[in-house]
Amino acid sequence: MTVNSDKLLEAAVAAAEEKKASRIVALNLKEISLVADYFVICSGNSDVQVQAIATEIRKQSEMLGVRVRGIEGMDSARWVLIDLGDVVVHVFHRDERDYYNLERLWSDAKVVELA
Asked: For the chain, which residues make up each domain, given as ranges?
């Protein structure tokens, strides 16, 4: 079973919401980058919450049959990057998110309206 990038985006956002991630933003990169179709950016208030959000996203993706290509940053839990192929998820500790400001770096991308 193949999961399209839109369904994978929905699953990643739902998993982040499940673990009470804050400031969830999805950026549509389809027209501007070959890296991925979407970036999801969200925040956790503590190292433990960041790890819980990342773990839930991985778990939900695997339940859909999506192979997680890589997860970086789980040990420090300051910025966890989850590569799901067409969707790349960035889970930041709230203190790190403003510093890296990925939304500004990818300002050419359209923000996806999340339901």
From this structure: 5-112
Q: What is the pTM of this model?
A: 0.94
Cβ(12)–Cβ(49) under 8 Å? no
Q: Token pair for residue 98? A: 């403003």
**67-104: pLDDT as tens digits:** 999 999 999 999 999 999 999 999 999 989 999 999 99
Tokens of 1: 């079973």
Beta strands in 30-97 (DSSP E): 38-44, 70-72, 79-83, 87-93
Confidence of residue 36 (pLDDT cuts 50, 70, 90): very high
Ramachandran class of 23: left when φ > 0, alpha when ψ lies in -120 to 50, beta otherwise: left
5-112 to CATH, choices 3.30.460.10, 3.90.550.10, 3.40.50.1000, 2.40.30.170: 3.30.460.10
CA distances from 69 to 61, 77, 88 (A): 11, 18, 10
